[in-house]
Amino acid sequence: MSRSRMLRHGFTLVELLVVISIIGVLMSLLLPAINAAREQGRITQCKSNLRNLGLANLECQSKTSHYVTGGWGPLWVGFADGGNGVKQPGGWVYNLLPYLDENNLYVLGQGSNSLTDAQMQGDVVRQVQTTQAIMNCPTRRAVQAWNTIINPNMNPYDPLATGAQQVNSSTVARGDFAANAGVQYKKASGTGTTETEQQFGCFLDPASGPNNTFPNTYANGVAGTGFDATLRWSGVVFQRSLIGDGSVHDGAGKTYLFGEKFVDRKHTEDGGYFGDEGNLYSGMGADNYRTTLVLWQNDPTDTQNTDGSFPSDPSKPLQAGTTANPNVAMLNDQVDTGGVYGCLFGSAHSGIVNFVFCDGRTTSVSVSIDPLTHRYLGERNDGKILDDATIGF
Predict the structure, then answer these.
(1) Tens of pLDDT along 161-219?
(2) Cα dihedral: 184, 185, 186, 192 (round 10)
(3) Burial of 313 (C-beta count, 10 Å sphere; 0-12/13-18/19+)
(4) Element (H, E) at 52
(5) SS3 state at 262
(6) Of 14, 151, 314, 339, which one has the greatest count of Cβ atoms within 10 A?
């Protein structure tokens, strides 16, 4: 057979390189779409978790005639014999457990009169280490108990101790969602119509929890047992809250219930951010609660206090030296070196934060929402009329 009639098979090196280049271009075009589809799936799961939390709250309301209560302070966790009202030190996540098919965890430590202090401490450890997948946003982090508590002062109290004894735990469960406490107001001076108030974030000093002996606090009830009587919140879930639909005058469909919480993206796994350093079941404080307080840029009266509060009103006339634009109302996760944003709602998504409203409706809210609109959505009785176009629904 002549050489000219021989058939050639295969590719030349140049042809192979061309094919590889084409495949590379196609992959570069497809990967963003694949990643976007995956993120959309994670967003859907995040919203589904919030929706189920909202439904659990509606069931809680039908059984107790009020929204889930907010507990005491950041060092207190759930106490099975504390009921579901103002005498319950545990936070909103603990108080939702019976409506999330987690009653076994909820009743842990029940009949505390027959338990030793060591047994109660063991139950506290089991509680704070128990993860809840429903409290997780898959975009931010996995469902697991995290190994590190950088701040040992955030270990929870032992409710049976004769003093403010804290319980050490090698790991704690954390969540990505926070309850809406609205804006924290502190009575400053005056009475009646002349009373003046300062507005604060979600930070609550552990001493306001209270931090005295639990049995005495519980036996004495509510008043005069270490709670700061000058504080009030305009949201729906906060310290010792018993809010029902009748108190949400702005409408259940126009008031936040739960939303994603901002966390410094460098500290999502180590507990090194003050708004995420405790455990999932703690009472009122920066770990599981957020507010809709808005800060103004370059306002000399808007500096952060040493206790983490911000004593200014964003609806006031602008002071000298301020800019016309308010600071961010909520953020996607970023580095927060100064710890300024620990009371803000936020997310690990791009451009949005997911919320469930008091009526159970779940939606994504743009981080570019008008800050004052965002604030009004967090306050249950501000009297502002907000239409869907203004909100961005």
Answers:
(1) 766 678 988 899 999 999 999 988 776 655 544 445 556 667 766 555 565 445 444 44
(2) -160
(3) middle
(4) helix 13-64
(5) coil
(6) 314
Tell the burial category of 194 from Cβ atoms under 10 Å away from its Cβ (0-12, 13-18, 19+): exposed
Model pLDDT, residue 25: 83
Q: How far is residue 251's CA from residue 41's CA, in Å, rounded to a whole number?
A: 30
> For the ranges 11-20, 42-51, 291-300, which has the lowest average pLDDT?
291-300
Helix (H) or strand (E) holding 364: strand 362-366
Q: How far is CA 106 from CA 159, 190, 363, in A?
A: 15, 43, 29
Could you tell me how far CA 390 lies from the centroid of its own chain? 24
What are the CA-CA distances from residue 130 to residues 75, 94, 148 (Å)? Answer: 17, 11, 15
Record the pTM: 0.83
For CA atoms 165, 167, 168, 174, give the dihedral sign: negative
Q: What element of type H or E holds 331?
A: strand 331-332
